[in-house]
Specification:
This protein is 3% helix and 47% strand. The protein has 790 residues and is mainly beta. Among the domains are: 581-702, no CATH class; 718-790, no CATH class. The strands form three sheets. It has a 52-stranded mixed sheet that branches. The chain has a 17-stranded mixed sheet that branches. Strands 21-24 form a two-stranded parallel sheet. A hairpin with a 2-residue loop joins strand 69 (673-677) and strand 70. The radius of gyration is 49 Å and the shape is rod-shaped. Residues 697-756 are annotated as: Disordered. The chain crosses the membrane at residues 760-780.
């Protein structure tokens, strides 16, 4: 019979026949079903039929409070919210037995839902329609499965058998409510095992049974959760590790098989636990949207599969040499800004793929990371030392993109060690700290130094090496330094700050390329800066620190010195320009031309050698409008002059320009030379103190008009008493004495001085003119020499 509760009696006891309908006039007995539905006079029902086993317990209407003796029923079906203040015991034999919870069912503590199962029994609870089953669960060692789209909230468990979570059901527990040891929990399809408090979970877990699962199969959330027994991954599943600072611990081992685990949040395989996988298994940590972190504390000889970490904020910590598996195992991929690092001192022999500005790093003081095989993928990678002291040693770096280096300080270097190789194709940026280049072609392309100290180190540093490519542009854009303990050749030198340190006399840097660049930083040390390329280099900084014995060798191209290189010996086979200072200057068939446009170059010591002296003349102001080299003394030999008269300037015959000035004693004679520039002719002479360019011939009608500041106060044709500036005495402008416009002899003093009507001087007039011209020239030269030779 199926007995329906009416509650019509004066009491609420199940044993009272008047409380039931459709029950044959009596109370329910063994094998009968009990139904609590609509229309009851009393919704309190007290089971006083202990020992009676019902076929089914059904609750169809809300508001019932069932209490009393334990209720025993082979099946239960709850479709309305129900609270039991008693235990529900479900006996079952072999085979599967299906129960339904379609509305919230709460079994109050210390009562429980207990499955009394025979051999080979499986009880299935379908928790549907978003319902929640809140209960303590007990029972034997058979099988219990939860289906549906609802939630099971464990209030404790002593169930010894296996528990299966299927469909989209969620099993939640935390702390002691998760119970003790028992059979495995299997989470398949869209089901979830979720922890609601700190706990040590003592059941084995299997996540997935094939396919790709979208929701999280296991969630630790903001709680400290230790999985004390093995976790096996049997599908492509997702796990949310710790999100509150405590990682999810796979303390009982983690096995991936041929499947994949996507981890978000934090997790770890702690000491004494193992990570194993088949060759096709994969551990995936984090995504672009959701970061994850995973720490492997010791060697994982059974991890043969793939490992990947992705997304900014995602971290893979490997604290053992074989944390990622033995040499030759699966590739480890680091992408989208993620990090692989260590807090220990290890050597990673695994194949590391680094892309999209992802990172290899040391994470703690005393850590050391030696990486034997790194490949840079699209977007390039970063190497960081994040703590001091520590180091990263890049043994082999290959790939298709660039590399960024960020060191925590001088005692946390990033090293390109001897015996390794670099074959990546991108540029290198050294951002901070210390970088040590110890092998040929340590970096393979252009090198930008920001705030780092990049040091070249070689056992025989006097030889020319190739730690940086000969074609590379070296740029220093911050406060960093390029420290050379050997000899290097580069394509170009540029940047706005920082310094290049040539450690000792055997250290050198050779610029070999064709580019035109400027370096505004300082030079330091006693080595050699050589420019052998066809390009141009402007030096805007100083070379004064530890610069004794330093050398600037302009073997080719053009170098402009605009800073203070006052302790540096310059030799020139190419071309030297600039407005700065050098210590000494030797022309070795090269060219020196002060300024960029007219300017002054200072030589603190000797200016000597054979070559070309370039001079631009644009006015009478030294350094401002015409070139000058100021030196202590000159011992110049054969000079070739390259004089340019700039547009807008028309020097007059007799003008002098002191283009090389000296301190006086110690200088040697320089043979006088005739020099031409267009229509101008000069004498180049040594007057015992300065080298002068003296205009000996100028065009009568120069195409360029002198500016007023360049006009002489008189001209070689000025006559006595001439106040007009035109050679006449009376302002007539025609060269006559009487103001006649036709140059006639009226008032001229006679016919002996001029041939009639010709305007040509006679012998007497010519002699007088010669004397007047000579006097004017001498006076002019004296005035101009006083003004401009100083």
């Amino acid at each position: 019979m199926t007995c329906r509760w009416t509650g019509a009696a004066a009491d609420a006891n199940w044993s009272t026949a008047q409380n039931w309908a459709d029950c044959g006039g009596g109370a329910p007995g063994d094998g009968d079903g009990v139904v609590f539905g609509a229309g009851a006079a009393d919704t309190e029902a007290v089971n006083d039929l202990g020992g009676t086993t019902f076929s089914v317990l059904r609750v169809e209407e809300p508001g019932y409070a069932l209490s009393g003796d334990d209720i025993e029923a082979h099946f239960f079906n709850v479709s309305a919210p129900t609270t039991l203040a008693t235990s529900l015991e479900v006996p079952s034999g072999a085979g599967e037995h299906l129960h339904h919870v379609a509305a919230d069912l709460t079994i109050e503590a210390p009562h429980q839902l207990r499955f009394a199962q025979g051999a080979d029994a499986t009880d299935i609870v379908n928790v549907a329609d978003g319902a929640t089953l809140r209960t303590r669960i007990g029972g034997g060692d058979q099988a219990l499965r939860f289906w549906g789209g609802g939630t099971v909230e464990l209030r404790g468990t002593t169930y010894a058998g296996t528990i299966g979570l299927e469909d989209a059901v969620t099993l939640r527990c935390g702390g002691d409510d998760c119970g003790g040891a028992g059979g495995a929990v299997t989470v398949v399809e869209d089901a979830t095992l979720e922890f609601t408090g700190d706990t040590e979970f003592q059941r084995p877990i299997t996540l997935g049974a094939g396919g790709v699962l979208e929701p999280y199969s296991l969630v630790a959330g903001p709680h400290a959760v230790t999985l004390a027994e093995p976790v096996t991954v049997g599908a492509w599943v997702r796990v949310q590790g710790g999100t509150g600072g405590d990682p999810l611990e796979f303390a009982g081992d983690l096995h991936l098989g041929d499947d994949a685990l996507d981890l978000h949040g934090a997790a770890t395989v702690p000491q004494f636990a193992s990570l194993t996988s088949d060759p096709n298994g994969e551990l995936r940590v984090g995504t672009i949207e959701t970061p994850g972190s995973f720490s492997i504390e010791e060697g994982q000889l059974g991890h043969e599969g793939l490992t990947s970490v992705s997304g900014t904020g995602s971290l893979l910590v490997v604290n053992d040499a074989v944390a990622l598996g033995p040499a030759g195992s699966g590739i480890t991929t680091v992408g989208n800004g993620a990090t692989v690092g260590t807090a220990d001192t290890i050597t990673l022999d695994e194949d590391i793929r680094l892309g999209a500005r992802s990172v290899l790093a040391t994470l703690a003081p005393g850590a050391g990371l030696t990486v034997t095989d790194v490949r840079l993928e699209t977007g390039g990678g970063r190497v960081e030392t994040r703590a001091t002291p520590s180091f990263v040693d890049l043994v082999s770096v290959e790939g298709i993109d660039g590399l960024e280096l960020a060191s925590a300080g001088i005692d946390a270097p990033i090293i390109f060690s001897e015996g390794g190789s670099s074959t990546y194709t991108g540029d290198t940026v050294a951002e901070s700290g210390a970088v040590a280049l110890r092998r040929d072609t340590s970096v393979t392309g252009d090198l930008e130094i920001q705030d780092a100290h990049v040091t070249t180190i070689h056992s025989n540093h006097a030889d020319l090496h190739d730690l940086v490519p000969d074609t590379a542009e070296l740029s220093i854009t911050g406060d960093g330094a390029f420290v050379l303990n050997d000899n290097e050749a580069i394509g170009a030198l540029s940047g706005s700050a920082g310094s290049v340190l040539l450690v000792d006399a055997a250290s050198g840097l050779d610029v070999t390329g064709e580019a035109a660049t400027a370096f505004g930083g300082d030079l330091r040390g006693g080595g050699t800066l050589r420019h052998s390329g066809d390009g141009a280099l402007t030096l805007g900084g100083d070379w004064t620190q530890n610069a004794d014995g330093s050398r600037l060798a302009v073997d080719g191209g053009t170098v402009a010195v605009d800073g203070d290189l006052g302790l540096t010996a310059a030799t020139v086979q190419g071309s030297l320009r600039g407005t700065g200072t050098v210590g000494s200057l030797t022309l070795e068939s090269g060219t020196v031309a002060a300024g960029a446009s007219p300017g002054c170059l200072t030589v603190n010591g000797e200016f000597t050698g054979d070559g070309t002296l370039g001079v631009e003349l644009g006015g009478h102001e030294p350094c401002g409008t015409f070139d000058r080299i100021a030196t202590d003394h000159q011992t110049l030999g054969d000079l070739t002059w390259d004089v340019t008269v700039l547009d807008g300037f028309a020097p007059a015959e007799g003008d002098e320009f002191a283009v090389v000035t000296t301190a006086g004693p110690g200088s040697t004679d320089l043979p006088a030379q005739e020099v031409t520039s267009g229509e101008y002719a000069f004498d180049a002479v040594w007057d015992g103190t300065d080298v002068l360019l003296r205009v000996t011939s100028a065009p009568e009608n120069p195409t360029s008009t002198p500016s007023p500041s360049d006009e002489p106060t008189g001209s070689p044709t000025d006559g006595p008493g001439d106040e007009s500036g035109d050679g006449s005495e009376d302002g007539s402008g025609d060269g006559s004495d009487d103001g006649a416009a036709d140059g006639s002899d009226e008032g001229s003093g006679g016919d002996d001085d001029l041939l009639p009507d010709t305007g040509v001087w006679t012998a007497g007039g010519l002699a007088l003119a010669a004397l007047l011209v000579a006097a004017g020239v001498l006076a002019l030269r004296a005035r101009r020499r006083a003004m401009h030779a100083a």
